[in-house]
């Protein structure tokens, strides 16, 4: 059932509509009711808060296809929200077009927000999600950086979220310290309202990486089985993710301006001092800098957009190697 | 006047990014004035340029042992491409404070600005809001210190807006200045990407008055009314005092109301027109009597945008 969560008037012959597709098997739901259970379990897959991120679009399509193909296995409710920022997706803009504001900084209800219509959108989306057994907010990095499939969480939420995150078939879980500016994200707002919400980051902006999407969908069905939403007596195994804490990440920022040409593949192990890439000046061809890994580890973030300035992030390396031979 | 290059960054294709500072007087760092942090903030750039011109001509009048630093444009890259945010990655320098010298580009810029201005007793940031409309000229503060209101009143502007910082604003220069014990005030007004000559003069005179009140310039150094030692009362408003009037419908936004106008309760302030049929979809009335603090200013408006703020 397609439902309009937000329906707002635009100036000229159009409306701004945020839709969700609620997938629910009526026969199963009535069976649950007759057994006296209060409500069916519910999962929500949310994406497109940032209009330049498309990996989640494909994930939504894959989930909808699989559920429709095997409808008899659906026990609870699956809500799919592919486009929380529909105008941004259409305009290929990360932020909300016109106001140029990052929607994922306007979710918390307690603060002054810049424009009341954004508050209206974020409040309605939030209210429609509160109470779900799990919300998965899928992001696709940005156009600058490629990310391996990972779940990020605030240390304060780790106790509750880690067991669910481990089922999601991602490669990496990054547990970071609480960050003030993230208080107004969708995930923080929902977690604060007792609705467990996982943030997935994977791939790169404006592109689809099919293998990442298929892996994540497998994880989402695994967690749906765990929550009693999907009937699968023998769920396929999921990857055991690397769990990473804040001090175990090395950030490599560019020391120079130019074109960044990587010399390594994404998501590989590197040695200390290994050449990760070079910065080249196109006017002269000069290699202005060679970028080397500060330690042994695994490159989980790698620069995708070639133009860099001093400070541009080139890579993140998970450096807590389990054992290092001297 | 001493001209200083405060920061420089190379770009692959453009000329180097540079932050220039202009220093006047010598001695204790008394006042730092920062403008042009976003590409939309040309009005603040203009005010800062007038201040540089004034201080250059009147440098001998600066109280002995006092030093003033003016940075008219933190962000020439965005000003020159008429973009609000940093061109390469669309980040906002004024959300990157206190900055990080080893971090991302705009964190490095913020760190360089912070290093240049953090020891000053008084800090002024000529800034803007991201609203697509026009504000009256006002001094904006976050109440962290006890004497912030008094500092802001020294400009003699009609309003002081005492604003509770939201999570994003903890990354602003103003907020971080106060953490480092600078008494900091943001001056805002007008609309992004536009210049209002009357507001430019109001802000320019406001800053001169501020310098006089704080003993950095003598009364005699400032022309006319701005130099008057008589304090002009500002009305202090808090977030809760601002009556936000949203648009009930979308369409063509038609108004003759200007920021600063006095309005009556129930007065029709704007009409929203059907963009095809020309019919009035909605009339927007002021819920209270007061002053128009902000007026939406763009041809088309969405439903539930802020049409007016009345105080
Ligand atoms: Zn995102």
Primary descriptors:
heterodimer; A: 326 residues; alpha/beta; Aminopeptidase; OB fold (Dihydrolipoamide Acetyltransferase, E2P); four-stranded antiparallel sheet; 7 helices; 31% strand; B: 311 residues; 6 helices; binds zinc ion
- How many DSSP E strands of chain A? 17
Q: Could you state the oligomeric state of the chains shown?
A: heterodimer
What is the CA-based Rg of chain B, rounded?
20 Å
CATH superfamily of the largest domain in chain B: Zn peptidases
Question: Biggest sheet of chain A: strands, sense, closure?
Answer: 13 strands, mixed
- Beta content of chain A: 25-35%
> What sort of overall outline of chain B do the alpha carbons produce when their principal axes are compared?
globular
Structural class of chain A: alpha/beta
Helix content of chain B: 10-25%
Major pleated sheet of chain B: 13 strands, mixed
Termini separation of chain B comes to 41 Å
CATH class of the largest domain in chain A: Alpha Beta
Q: Number of helix segments of chain A?
A: 7
Q: CATH fold name of the largest domain in chain B, please?
A: Aminopeptidase
Would you identify the regions of chain B where 5 or more consecutive residues have pLDDT less than 50? none
State the end-to-end distance of chain A: 60 Å
> How would you state the average pLDDT of chain A, rounded?
92
Q: How much beta of chain B, percentage-wise?
A: 25-35%
CATH-scheme architecture of the largest domain in chain A: 3-Layer(aba) Sandwich
